[in-house]
Amino acid sequence: MKTKDVVIGITTAILLLVIAIAIILGGTGWTPLTEIRLLAKFYLENCFNLFDKNYWAASPEAVSAMLWDYRGIDTYYETAVFFLAVISGVALFRIAEVKVGAISSMRRELGLSIIVKTVTRIAFPLIITVSASVALHGHLTPGGGFQSGSMMAVAFLTAIAAFSRYFIEENLKLTKDNFLTLRSVGLITIAILALAPILAGSIALMQNQAKPWSSTPSFPEALGILWTAGSIFYYNLAEFLTVGAGFTLLFLLISIPEEEFRRILRL
Amino acid sequence: MNFEIFLQLYGYLALMVIMVISLYGIVRGASLIKKLIALTIFGDTANALIIFLGFKFGEIYPPVLPTLKPTLEDIAWFVSTAVDPVPQCLVITAVVINMAITMFLAFLVIQIYRLYGTTMVKKIAKLKG
């Protein structure tokens, strides 16, 4: 037992030493101090270049342009991983029906103190509003679908912590199935948007603006006076729904009281 | 050795120390909950390392063009002052996916606790049937 600890300690120390030497010898590649790499320069130069539209993505925000245009397939698979994580969580916690009626009579006593409840009542709509704003401006300002979805889930998480999960299920009339539907709507929208260029005859999945090697028409970069940056605006909205509803669904499942579960497992 | 290089090396080494410590936690944690916490720290350190690779000294701005009608000078200014957007793009998705995976593992741990009444790895390994 003692020798095992010593061996593990020495192994950890050697690992740290090896990594430190690798870094000092330049193992992280070319890390410039005051300039950026050539790849980053290409993206920054082309993401909103009105004068040379060969490689542009129609989005003044370089990160969103990369996320949904230049490196779109990567984001597509990340969304698939997210889908799998959520669906396996739901599959693990599938139970017939959580009984609400018995506890709802003493609902007023549930949750934290009146100070926390009042503050949450004020903050909850504000957080939802800010998250929607971040999602809608994702192609123009810092932000996007992933960030705004997480913010929306945090709003519901504060509500669960301050009131209880019955606040969401009874006062807001939003059940687990509603969130499952919302998440599915977001995912289907992403899938349709990704496949639309292929159906239109393109060679590229998730093509936003046409690149020199594909001659098909690109997404319209604006709807009237509303600048949508091609498909990035719609992708951000769909991802907002997917991430926000997915995480809220997981939070709702994880906050099911333990007694309910034990009652169901015994049956 | 000037100050910037020292700062860069110091940042890398600090992140690596945290990474190795969390790796030790993943291997040696007695309870599944402790392993899960160490795994979260490991993932966040990896993300911080990627962000750190994109940092640069000097005049810096976020990689967002502040106008919808840029001139060529605007674009040249943007390219020379913005930070590297590639690591930010990588990390945005990784953070959310990390959180989803962590939630899934937490669900698994909760289920194990419900079924076996313990999260200690050694006790779970000795269970029969």
Task: Tag the structure with descriptive keywords.
heterodimer; A: 267 residues; mainly alpha; two-stranded antiparallel sheet; 64% helix; B: Helix Hairpins; 74% helix; elongated
Task: Describe what this molecule looks like in 3D.
The complex is a heterodimer of chains A (267) and B (129). With 267 residues, chain A is mainly α. Chain A has helices spanning 2-24, 38-46, 62-70, 72-92, 101-104, 114-136, 145-162, 165-171, 176-199, 232-254, 258-266, and strands at residues 222-223, 226-227. Chain A has one domain (54-266). In chain A, 64% of the residues lie in helices and 1% in strands. Chain A has a two-stranded antiparallel ribbon with strand order 1-2. The model of chain A has no long low-confidence stretch (mean pLDDT 83). Chain B is mainly α. Chain B contains five helices and no strands. Chains A and B meet through helix 1, helix 2, helix 3, helix 4 and helix 7 of A and helix 1, helix 3 and helix 4 of B.
Report the count of strand segments of chain A. Answer: 2
Q: Low-confidence parts of chain B, pLDDT < 50 over ≥5 residues?
A: none
Strand order of the largest sheet of chain A: 1-2
Name the chain pair whose interface involves the most residues: A-B, 64 and 56 residues
| Straight-line distance between termini of chain A | 43 Å
Oligomer: heterodimer
Number of strands of chain B: 0
User: Tell me, what's the shape of chain A?
Assistant: globular
Tally of discrete structural domains of chain A: 1
CATH architecture of chain B: Orthogonal Bundle
**What is the number of helices of chain B?**
5
Strand content of chain A: under 5%
- The CATH class of chain B is Mainly Alpha
Largest sheet properties of chain A = 2 strands, antiparallel
Shape of chain B: elongated
| Share of residues in strands of chain B | under 5%
- What percent of the residues of chain A sit in helical stretches (DSSP H or I)? 55-70%
Please specify the SSE layout and strand pairing.
The complex is a heterodimer of chains A (267) and B (129).
Chain A lengths: L1 H23 L13 H9 L15 H9 L1 H21 L8 H4 L9 H23 L8 H18 L2 H7 L4 H24 L22 E2 L2 E2 L4 H23 L3 H9 L1
Helix pairs in contact in A: 3-4, 4-10, 6-7, 7-8, 7-10, 9-10
Chain B lengths: L2 H26 L3 H22 L18 H10 L3 H32 L4 H6 L3
Helix pairs in contact in B: 1-2, 2-4
